[in-house]
Specification:
Elements: H1 2-15, H2 26-40, H3 65-89, E1 97-99, E2 105-106, E3 118-119, E4 126-128, H4 156-167, H5 172-176
Antiparallel strand pairs: 1-4, 2-3
Helix pairs in contact: 1-2, 2-3
């Protein structure tokens, strides 16, 4: 029945060669797999993967961040770029909303070990064919810090509510337990 058909679609998607080239990093290869599953049209609305590992550790470190961040952000940029380009070539990018989630931001001042501490404001990146683009909200004012970190200007539940309501068609108030004003980043 349905399970057998889904299994056939997954095997077919895994065997298919994506239209574009993906970097050899674990993150990019995970996005390659997600692109294949999007092509398989399984009816799955949400996929999750994470960036970290690959010999560089993750974002939650407090020393020698220049090299670490450079490597991680290059993996992020290259992987997301390949993912979006790949789906764009097949006309599927308007069906996809990629969103990053982080549990914390960073302070600005160096801690003496060439690193920083945890801060309140974490960046959220979105990509896809129905994103308005650009910066949402004000540019951070680096003269007005909260414990050496930029303060948060857009609560994450507002972003999540926007995705739930506008993208997934879900009842965001019921899921989140309260109403949240949407953020204007989708077309």
């Amino acid at each position: 029945g349905l399970a057998r058909e889904a299994g056939r679609k997954i095997r077919s998607a895994a065997a298919a060669t994506p239209a574009g080239r993906f970097p050899a990093t674990q993150f990019a290869q995970r996005l390659r797999a997600v692109a294949s599953l999007v092509r398989a049209d399984l009816g799955i609305r949400v996929y999750f993967t994470e960036l970290g590992g690959d010999g560089f550790g993750g974002f939650d470190n407090h020393a020698n961040q220049k090299e670490n961040r450079t490597a991680l952000l290059a993996q992020f940029s290259d992987g997301v770029g390949a993912f979006i380009d790949d789906l764009r070539r097949d006309g599927l990018v308007r069906r996809v909303l990629l969103m990053t989630v982080s549990e914390f931001g960073r302070t600005l001042g160096e801690n003496g070990r060439h690193g920083t501490g945890h801060g309140a404001a974490a960046p959220v990146f979105v990509a896809g064919g129905r994103i308005k683009g650009g910066l949402t909200g004000p540019h951070p004012d680096l003269r007005r810090l909260d414990n050496d970190a930029p303060p948060c200007h857009t609560d994450f539940p507002r972003v999540f509510a926007t995705v739930l309501r506008t993208w997934l068609g879900a009842n965001a108030d019921a899921v989140l337990g309260a109403p949240f004003e949407p953020v204007d980043f989708l077309t």
